[in-house]
Write a structure and sequence with these properties.
The structure is a single chain. 39% of the residues lie in helices and 17% in strands. The protein is of the alpha/beta class.
């Protein structure tokens, strides 16, 4: 389904539905298409907002996790959003974490799936010569439990980014920034309700990473999904949406008086 891209000042974003805001942050090679099932489901329950993160548009000095977190902060301020459910996948989860540690006041809950911030196996330092599409295919397939999830269209998207010299430099800068920006000592500052949804077969941020997040974030709950890799919202959308919807409904339920 095609969605309208809206513009507010320099921010471009998708906005669908009504209700409590659910803001989605995509990963390093992510795009709005990564959240297609999630948007289609939750637009009937929430106001779903997906800012287009300027991964490849920032100047090289600000091409970092903290640079993206500042962008998200300015976006939420510009939209004057309150009580936000902030969801991030992969690098988007890392950005959500940094933003929430620095600016928890607008956030109602945090949802992480395959998030970096503690440990990740990314593209690594083994970038091939530009033009090696087969390498990109294999790396893209590693994102998923089922390699068939890496469609030709998805491989083409990643290939077009890595085959552009300036874009590739910025991708490497972001990947290195994510590795340097380890949040292990700061996660206990997050007091908000936090949901961790993880693929049991994630090879990029393996299950032990999820358990560590669960241990370090005080008010967090962890769900594993079998036969699922690094992007559960793409690979097993029905199960992902079910877990997330239960979490959001629980937060919206009026407190019972003893």
């Amino acid at each position: 389904m095609d969605y309208e891209i809206k513009q507010l000042d320099k921010f471009r974003y998708l906005e669908e539905g009504e209700g409590e805001p659910l803001v989605l942050l995509h990963g390093l090679f992510g795009a709005m298409s990564n959240f297609a099932h999630l948007i289609e489901y939750f637009r009937h329950h929430n106001k779903v907002i997906v800012p287009l993160l300027p991964l490849l548009e920032m100047d090289i000095l600000h091409t970092s996790v903290s640079g993206l977190a500042k962008f998200v902060h300015r976006f939420l301020e510009a939209k004057d959003m309150q009580q936000v459910h902030l969801l991030g996948n992969s690098l988007g989860g890392h950005v959500a974490l940094v933003h929430t540690i620095k600016h928890p006041e607008r956030i109602r809950s945090l949802i992480l799936t395959g998030s970096s911030g503690l440990f990740e196996n990314g593209m690594g330092d083994s970038y091939p010569k530009r033009g090696d599409r087969e390498y990109i295919r294999k790396k893209t397939e590693l994102t998923f439990y089922d390699p068939k999830t890496a469609t030709e269209e998805l491989v083409d998207e990643v290939y077009s980014i890595t085959n552009n010299r300036l874009k590739a430099i910025k991708i490497i800068a972001l990947a290195k920034s994510a590795i340097r920006n380890n949040l292990g000592e700061e996660l206990n500052q997050i007091k908000l309700p936090t949901l961790l949804i993880w693929g049991n077969n994630d090879t990029i941020t393996p299950p032990f990473v999820a358990r560590e997040f669960n241990k370090l974030i005080p008010n967090s709950e962890l769900y594993f999904i079998d036969k699922c890799g690094h992007a559960p919202m793409m690979e097993v959308p029905d199960e992902f949406n079910s877990i997330l919807h239960k979490f959001l409904k629980k937060l919206s339920a009026p407190a019972t008086v003893a």
